[in-house]
Amino acid sequence: MSEERPRQRTPWPPVPTEPPTPHAQAPGPGTKLQVHYDECFGCGELDGGLHMRSTVGEHAHVHAEFTVTEAHQGAPGLAHGGLLACAFDEALGSAVGNLLQRPAVTGKLETDFLRPVPVGSTLFITAKLDGTAGRKIYASADGRLDSADGPIAVRARALFVEVAFEHFTSHGYADAMERFRRTRPQTWDINP
Ligand SMILES: CCCCCCCC(=O)SCCNC(=O)CCNC(=O)[C@H](O)C(C)(C)COP(=O)(O)OP(=O)(O)OC[C@H]1O[C@@H](n2cnc3c(N)ncnc32)[C@H](O)[C@@H]1OP(=O)(O)O
């Protein structure tokens, strides 16, 4: 179960990219990030949700924690892999949305599960932005077991695609999105 095992062999990002420059109004290091939507399975307060909390770190990293409960099992006593992927989607999306202040959705998410993650353990996830190419935003994350310097249990990398506000209002709850937009006006000034 070595974290040195080279599971991710393909180049990353897979295309030439620009450095990801944080938005001028991006929250700075030490900022505890707010729940972006109360009903979000990742960061909201839903029963059985992941209840994740994130903080901006140095060097445009976002640190998030996910504590695995009985509600998150796949095998007895072990976290479900799909929910671990969800935790990474949340942490990576939080990095993209908060640091770049660009509205984007997950287009692709890949995960490497390196160690079992037992019920009762906490994954310390560090997400970072790797590059942008037009509307495409590449990000990756490591999840360490039970402490910020614990062994890496899960790795993930993802492509987010910038979308227009209408993506959310056409396909989701338009009224809830209007309320969300008012909390982040700088995010919606940028049109893809
Ligand atoms: C309240 C606000 C909260 C916001 C955070 C929400 C986070 C989430 O939970 S997102 C939920 C899960 N994700 C989704 O539902 C997204 C569903 N998918 C879609 O809507 C579309 O497929 C979408 C928007 C990703 C891309 O569609 P579209 O806008 O037509 O762009 P499209 O031209 O297909 O793709 C754009 C670029 O990304 C690339 N791309 C898109 N998907 C992929 C993929 N899976 N793999 C590789 N490349 C991809 C395309 O090849 C294209 O590249 P290029 O510009 O070089 O040609």
Automatic annotation (TrEMBL):
It is a peripheral membrane protein. Keywords: Apoptosis, Cell membrane, Cell projection, Cytoplasm, Fatty acid metabolism, Hydrolase, Lipid metabolism, Membrane, Transit peptide. SUPFAM superfamilies: Thioesterase/thiol ester dehydrase-isomerase (SSF54637). Gene3D superfamilies: Hotdog Thioesterase. Signal peptide: none annotated. Residues 1-31 are annotated as: Disordered. Residues 11-22 have a biased composition (Pro residues). This is Acyl-coenzyme A thioesterase THEM4. It comes from Amycolatopsis taiwanensis.
